[in-house]
């Protein structure tokens, strides 16, 4: 029996997205996702995301009401809006007087345009806080630190926020325009009732597709890992949506059966707000669980493809610019703490010759940025092992051999410290040189790929151009090239050119006549080869016949000269 041993090497994040062809293992992925959901403290992160959701709710409400104030028709628009909300809630418009008064109060404040601009800006800013929190949660799931600097991260978060807000508005409009609302809007616009009935049925797949796209875009755009474009629509996003729908339905059934008695009894007038926050928390829990499933599906595909993804999902970071800075900051904090311990030990021993093997910041940065930038790309901030100080010996006699031994130990510690400093400095310089070398290699490889692409495109265009060139155009191009290098014109040369043109014209006429005759003649039927057993045997050649005749003559002559032997035979 043979055994294959897998060498466990230090992992580093790849520079490019690895090619994965294997299918995911759903059983392993779901089991790991449930375990990671607990270990990553996703319920706590869902609570933080719920806070950001509530924070972005009120600026958005101000923006919507200001939009109604600017582009609406005053009280008529307010009454229509309240009537729509009453139809959705199954109540009478007079039961929602508080909503009417609230909208009227906002309208009477004035400054609708300013309120609209401020509300939109505040809603985008507060909603970007939710997207940023979701980004940090997914970085925890993928076990990668945030490497994008602020000037890159914030615009990306704002762009994702704007896209998400627009899609959410589209979904809300699709959900609101249903039943009586859709019929009333269709009657006012002139849309047939048949079309509104079709819309009531056909809108649900559209809504599901948009919601799954919203979740998938958060999974794809917010974490600091690079994914392919096709990873926007993933099974994890669909599972997150299904879990959210099931959990929301369970909450609605519970509230319907109990009429919200426990919440009303506990929170009183705030029961509605608490239930709404609970629903938001359930929504975020479902989305984070879908993100865990999505990450584990990627991991199982990589494992089945032979990649060592047991401890880390092998996806490249979008940006690792901040990795070295974060590691250097951690190293400096470590050195400060270590120096504080050394000073306290020197004061306690009243000896300034105590040397600690301090982990210099340069040494940390060299180990973390070096080794092919493994720590930076893997996102693991492993510090250099503790270089403990030499412990003091209280009460030791400083005289005689002990003093000499102590001096030798101090000198050895100083030499070791100097050696470590030189090593750290060398590692830092070599790490920087390697980063520069890798960057130049990537630039050269990119330039080479672009050059080959340009050559392939030029060759393709040349072949396309040549396929449309006629014989006359080709002769013209040949004549142009010849004209560039022609000697001075002479009568003899003109005569040669005239003869050449005459021969060329005759050749063209001959080719045209052949083509015309070939077009007039019917196509020749294909000759079917005769079966093998019908073919006659080839006739013998003259030489072979002559050789055989000579052999027969010699045989007859021999038998004629030996009659006695013929008789005995």
From TrEMBL:
It comes from the Bacteria. It holds the Pfam family Virul_fac_BrkB. The chain crosses the membrane at residues 46-71, 114-135, 156-176, 201-220, 232-255, 267-291. It is a multi-pass membrane protein. Residues 372-401, 439-569 are annotated as: Disordered. The keyword Cell membrane applies. The keyword Calcium does not apply. This is YihY family inner membrane protein.
């Amino acid at each position: 029996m043979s055994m294959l041993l897998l060498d466990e090497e230090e992992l580093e994040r790849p520079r490019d997205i690895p090619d994965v062809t294997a299918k995911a293992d759903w059983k392993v992925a779901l089991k790991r996702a449930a375990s990671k959901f607990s270990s990553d403290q996703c319920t706590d992160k869902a609570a933080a995301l719920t806070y950001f959701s509530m924070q972005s709710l009120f600026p958005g409400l101000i923006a919507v009401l200001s939009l109604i104030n600017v582009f609406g028709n005053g009280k008529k628009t307010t009454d229509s809006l309240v009537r729509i909300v009453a139809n959705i809630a199954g109540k009478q418009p007079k039961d929602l007087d508080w909503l009417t008064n609230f909208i009227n109060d906002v309208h009477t404040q004035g400054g609708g345009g300013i309120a609209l601009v401020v509300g939109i800006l505040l809603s985008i800013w507060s909603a970007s806080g939710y997207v940023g929190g979701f980004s940090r949660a997914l970085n925890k799931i993928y076990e990668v630190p945030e490497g994008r600097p602020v000037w890159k991260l914030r615009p990306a978060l704002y762009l994702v926020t704007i896209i998400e807000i627009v899609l959410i508005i589209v979904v809300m409009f699709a959900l609101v325009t249903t039943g009586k609302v859709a019929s009333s809007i269709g009657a006012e616009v002139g849309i047939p009732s048949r079309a509104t009935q079709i819309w009531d049925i056909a809108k649900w797949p559209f809504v599901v597709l948009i919601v799954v796209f919203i979740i998938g875009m958060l999974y794809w755009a917010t974490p600091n890992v690079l994914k392919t474009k096709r990873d926007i629509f993933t099974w994890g996003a669909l599972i997150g949506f299904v879990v959210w729908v099931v959990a929301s339905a369970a909450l609605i059934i519970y509230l319907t059966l109990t009429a919200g008695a426990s919440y009303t009894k506990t929170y009183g007038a705030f029961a509605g707000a608490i239930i709404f926050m609970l629903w938001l928390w359930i929504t975020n829990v479902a989305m984070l669980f879908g993100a865990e499933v999505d990450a584990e599906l990627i991991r199982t595909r990589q494992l089945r493809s032979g990649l060592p993804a047991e401890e880390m999902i092998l996806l490249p970071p979008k940006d690792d610019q901040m990795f070295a800075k974060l590691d250097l900051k951690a190293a400096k904090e470590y050195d400060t703490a270590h120096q504080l311990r050394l000073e306290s030990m020197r004061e306690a021993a009243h000896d300034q010759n105590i040397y600690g093997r301090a982990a210099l910041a340069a040494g940390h940065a060299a180990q973390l940025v070096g080794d092919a930038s493994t720590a930076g790309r893997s996102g693991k901030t492993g510090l250099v092992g503790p270089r403990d100080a030499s412990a003091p010996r209280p009460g030791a006699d400083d005289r005689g051999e002990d003093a000499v031994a102590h001096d030798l130990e101090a000198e050895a510690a100083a030499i070791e410290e100097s050696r470590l400093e030189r090593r750290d400095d060398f590692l830092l310089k070599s790490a920087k040189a390697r980063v520069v070398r890798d960057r130049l290699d990537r630039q050269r490889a990119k330039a080479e790929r672009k050059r080959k692409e340009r050559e392939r495109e030029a060759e393709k265009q040349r072949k396309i151009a040549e396929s449309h060139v006629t014989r006359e155009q080709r002769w013209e191009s040949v004549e142009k090239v010849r004209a560039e290098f022609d000697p001075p014109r002479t009568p003899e040369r003109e005569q040669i050119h005239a003869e050449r043109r005459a021969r060329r014209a005759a050749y063209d006429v001959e080719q045209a006549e052949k083509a015309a005759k070939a077009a007039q003649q019917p196509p020749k039927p294909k000759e079917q080869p005769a079966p093998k057993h019908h073919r006659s045997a080839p006739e013998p050649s003259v030489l072979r016949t002559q050789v055989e005749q000579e052999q027969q003559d010699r045989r007859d002559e021999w038998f004629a000269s030996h009659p006695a032997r013929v008789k005995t035979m």
